[in-house]
Amino acid sequence: MSAQRHMHDHSAHVHSNHGSFVHEPPEAARELYREARESALPDSGREVVSVELEAREVDWSIAPGTVVRAWTFNGQVPGPVIEGRVGDVLEVRLTNRLPEPTAVHWHGMRLPAPMDGTEMVQQLVQPGESFTYRFKLLDAGTFWYHPHVNETVQLERGLYGALIVRGDDEPVLDREQVLVLDDLKLDRNGQVAKFGGFVERHDGREGDVRLVNGKREPAFSIAAGQIERWRVVNAASARYVRLSIGGAAFRILGTDGGLIEAPVTVDEVLLAPGDRVDIAVGPFAAGQELAIDALRYSRTTIKRRGDERFATLRVGSAKASTAVVPERLRVIEPLAPSSATPNRTVDFGIKYSLRRGIDFVVNGERHKTDEPVRIGELQVWDVVNSTLMDHPFHLHGYFFQVLSVDGELPAWRSWEDVVNLPPKSTTRIAWMPDGRPGSWMYHCHILEHHAAGMMGHFEVVR
Ligand code: C2O
Ligand code: CU
Q1: Ranges under pLDDT 70 in the chain
Q2: Would you say the CB of residue 396 lies under 6 angstroms from ligand 1?
Q3: Per the confidence metrics, is the pTM higher than 0.85?
Q4: Among 249, 370, 398, 403, which residue's Cβ finds the most Cβ atoms within 10 Å?
């Protein structure tokens, strides 16, 4: 890459969404990057998984006869499912064939700061250039990747994909499927609609075309009598998915940061933007047909929606099952008691602005520069939502545990990198800066809110 060329060219880092906010990688960024790249070595017996990702524009078919001009990784929406095992090293060479700069963020990964894919830690990858990410896979779970530049446009146009990391002690079900959910706002010509406008800035952009794995309301199949593991990713810009599978019971096995302690039986689960969930689905009887829906969810937006269909599940003829859903999945030690004293308050709010109408802020500021965090010092944060809308809080690079929501204990313990903040609430989280110094951030994962400034960045220091 030509980091040198852009070193003093500030215009390269300014894009429409951040307006005048210029985030810069530190002077030493290239050295830190080289160090991180060279020190990523697989565990013994494990391997380097090499992937080429080319970001490029193509005509993508979302349904028979319906073609949308999309931005893709490797010509497909979503991008390829990237798979590795704990202890492997993932090496991804990103080549940018888009008409604008990009960078890829590895959402949920505990990786070194120089590999985080934001404009805080790297020079953007200019059209025609390549950049290589290389880092070790530390945790089993369902993750995803997406650009962290002009996100509102780049994700909406189709740049996102799933990243799966497998551990040694995974439950063995009959089959696995990955479902990446998205919605798309098209114009009268069936092309990606213009960006912007008050509703979109306020609510976040939602579209009426619902996609699973890049296809409009597709059908899935499952054999009668079998139990499958579904890894579900919500890649939508702003839509909350209250996932239902025909009202049938299913079992939650894992969330953002991998398996939870024991399966939890539910008949719906809420995925805020950026969220993932692993579920055990089935068994069903032959001939059943189930609606995979997003149930009505009110998040105080201007535009309201009812139940909406994402896909259909058809149950085929019976097959023998060897699936075992264990009663215990793993042990998660609590990081802190729910009574732990918070050492920081992060307040997601709105402010009225003459110029922009409405500002989305953290502790009263857009793009807040927050206090540094010291490695080894337990963080207990009160994450406050002082608005009347929901906001999904996302922390880069570290998993947290939810200690309480308005003083109530969560229903189960888990590792998360996204948690929904209900209106007028306080969510207490705990996380440990376990190393990996550098520039990190947290933000609302409604992409329009993030772009409007509902984010904070901070240093992790020794
Ligand atoms: Cu998936 Cu900074 O985000
Ligand atoms: Cu938000």
Answers
A1: 1-24, 26
A2: yes
A3: yes
A4: 403
